[in-house]
Write a structure and sequence with these properties.
By secondary structure, the chain is mostly helical. Helices cover 76% and strands 0% of the residues. The chain has a single domain, classed as Arc Repressor Mutant, subunit A.
């Protein structure tokens, strides 16, 4: 297999693991992550959409990122 093929396989595996980690998050946290990082919503837009304060959104995002980081073995998603 070519080096480029190896990279595509590893990228696909990383993507699959990341999606799995996101699915394990509580619904509100998962929704905030998707809105922020996939759809590009601002903190204020997410807050309004989810009936939260901007501070609560930041807390949910921080929790979600920390939870995913704790699940990722060293170097797996790099």
């Amino acid at each position: 297999m070519t080096h480029g093929g190896d990279r595509r396989i590893h990228a696909a595996q990383r993507s699959k693991r990341l999606k799995s980690y996101i699915q394990e998050l509580p619904t509100l946290h998962r929704t905030a992550v998707k809105m922020r990082y996939w759809k590009g919503f601002s903190t204020d837009d997410i807050a309004e959409s989810l009936s939260l304060t901007a501070g609560q959104v930041r807390d949910r995002l921080a929790y979600a990122l920390r939870a995913m980081r704790n699940r990722i073995p060293d170097g797996t998603l790099r």
